[in-house]
Each structure stands twice: as C-alpha cells, then as structure tokens.
C-alpha cells in the first residue's frame, strides 16, 4: 500500500525490468552507510569477545554484501545475526561460547533454514502470519534500534560526543531525503573529521597494515550441536520474523515492482550461513531494518551494497593486523544518529495499519512484546498470530 512507504521524495526511475540497473552515484554512496550503525559495533564486539579472526570476518562479511548486491540488484542488506551477536558479546551462556561454537552455530542455522526453504515450510509460515504481526515485528525492531542509538551510541563519547551527535542530527534532519545533497555523506564526513582530529593514532594505523586471506575452517560436530542449542534456537524466531517476513514486507513497501519472494530471501540467508563458517565468517542474515536504513539515506539499487561490502573487504584484507584500532576510531555518536534514523524509518512503516483498531492493537502488542521480553520475537510471533485470527471472530461473536 502506498501509505506504508517512508515519505521520501520520489526518485525518477526507468520502467521496471527484471534486471534493474546498478548505480554508483552519490546517493548510492550515501545510502551505503545506512546500516553501519547496526553492523559495525556488533562485528567488533563479536571479534573481541571470543577472539574471532578479524581479517576473515571482515573479508567474508564484505564478500557476502557484494554477492547480495549483485544477486538482488536492490539495497538488500547483509547483517550480523543480532541474537547470536548479543549472546556472544554478553556471554550469557556462562563462557560456553567460543569461536568454534560461533562457527558451528552459524552452520546449524544455515542448515535449519535451508530445510525450511526446500520443504516449503517457510512459504507456509509466510502465508499464515498476518501483515499486522509483521508490522508489529518491524515496530519492535525499530524500538530496539532507537533505544540502542539513544542510550548507548549517542552518549558513547561524553559531552563532546553529544555535541557531535546534535550537529549530525540537525544535518540529517535538514537533508533527509535530499537526492542532490545526501545527508549521510555530510554526516560520515563529519565523523571522519572528528575521528582524525580527536581519536586517530597514526602509529597504530600504520602497524595495522598487512594483507590477509580468510582462514578455511571445518566445524566439529560438538561445536555444531552446542551452537545449535546455545545460538541457533534463540536466533531462529527473530530470523523468521525480521530477516524473512519483515524483510520481504519492507521490500514490497519500498520496491513493489522488484521485491523478491520469501523463498529467495530464505535461500540466500541459508546459503550464506552454510558458507560463512567454512571461511571463518560470522553468522549473517538479511534484515528489514537495514533495507529501511539504506533506503532512508538514498540507496535505490544494489550499488550501495556493493560499495558497502567493498569497504569491509578492503579493510579486512589490508588492515588485518590491527583492524579494531582502525575501526574503533569512528565515533559512536555518529553511528547512533544513523541508527536512530534507521529505527524511526522502520517504525514509520506501521502507519498503514492505523485504519483498523484491531490490526493496530495487534501491531502495538507485538511490537512491545518483541522489544521487551526475553525470546520476545518468538512469543510475539505466536501470540500475535493467534490474536490476529481470534480477535475478529471474538468481536463478531460479542456483537451478535
């Protein structure tokens, strides 16, 4: 529905074709940074938490971005699996999670999602889950992103960082949707200048230079089983809700003439996670928030994803000896502002449900549960779907 789109000035496009053109202009470059606020902190956190091979992680993550951009020809994101990343960083499994378990868990997730795809179960799930529940999942994710942005990132560099975030917010608000002067270009430039002036250690940067290749790795059975129990089971409900259903819905909202079907999204999700562990990469997914973020900052083709992936590929291959020293100089407040606009863009998508009180109630309930409870996406998915079917019948019965 037209009302569900983010209100960004329309972009002149050629008639829809099965092979949409690539662009590598300033808008695609600006849009390429629309998901960095989500990805970068999670990637750094996982590498440092369990000692993953930094070069392998960055190279494989970048390669998956490039392949996805080429395949979809849309700004379809590749992101770290959020539930997995949070468990790894927080070590909520009592220190049970190691680098090998991360690789094993990624492989377990890939195989499980491949089974859902080839058996057609993913299509069945897509048919029975109502749009109001998907909108609620998008709302919950948007709430999580905005909370993370305001609580952790914007305040991540003291008073000086707050001033930096304020300037970046004003720039983003003033230029939001401007195709001639994309906001993200100026925000990223502001962050780069701030990093060079206040945070960059040139000696550490020089010490980080060194070429590397991804390391081949074969997960052991015990790591696959442990990864399945500790990482895959908490992740799968979130993946079904956000990486598959919500990603498909967001693609339909923003690119109705080019949106991929659910099975294609599920298949590439699964194949990424079967391949990633073999090259010492982290588990990854597609995601509705990243797609909204890319779009909000100007991306309209797969060119933005190719640009974004190339940055990680070069960073991993060239700065393999001390990548965290190079990456961590980029200020968190800037990432927070980008993440804030990504989250708000996600929440705006629920507006097409406000015409129905029952649908809007389900959206709000699912969003609050997904955002606020442990295993919230699983609970919200099941409870929301049940209510979406039961409430209209209950209302009809009471009014009879």
Count of DSSP-assigned helices: 18
Low-confidence stretches: 1-18
* Cα-to-Cα separation, first versus last residue: 32 Å
Beta strands, count: 2
Most strands sheet = 2 strands, antiparallel
Features:
mainly alpha, disordered N terminus, two-stranded antiparallel ribbon, 400 residues
Write the layout of secondary structure elements.
Blueprint: H1 26-31, H2 36-50, H3 54-72, E1 79-80, H4 82-90, H5 99-118, H6 121-128, H7 131-153, H8 158-175, H9 183-198, H10 202-207, H11 221-254, H12 262-275, E2 284-285, H13 288-296, H14 303-318, H15 323-327, H16 332-348, H17 357-372, H18 376-399
Antiparallel strand pairs: 1-2
Helix pairs in contact: 2-4, 3-14, 4-11, 5-11, 5-12, 7-11, 7-16, 7-17, 7-18, 8-9, 8-16, 11-12, 11-13, 13-16, 17-18
Question: What does it look like?
Answer:
- By secondary structure, the protein is mainly α.
- The protein is built from 18 helices and two strands.
- A two-stranded antiparallel ribbon has the order 1-2.
- The longest helix has 34 residues.
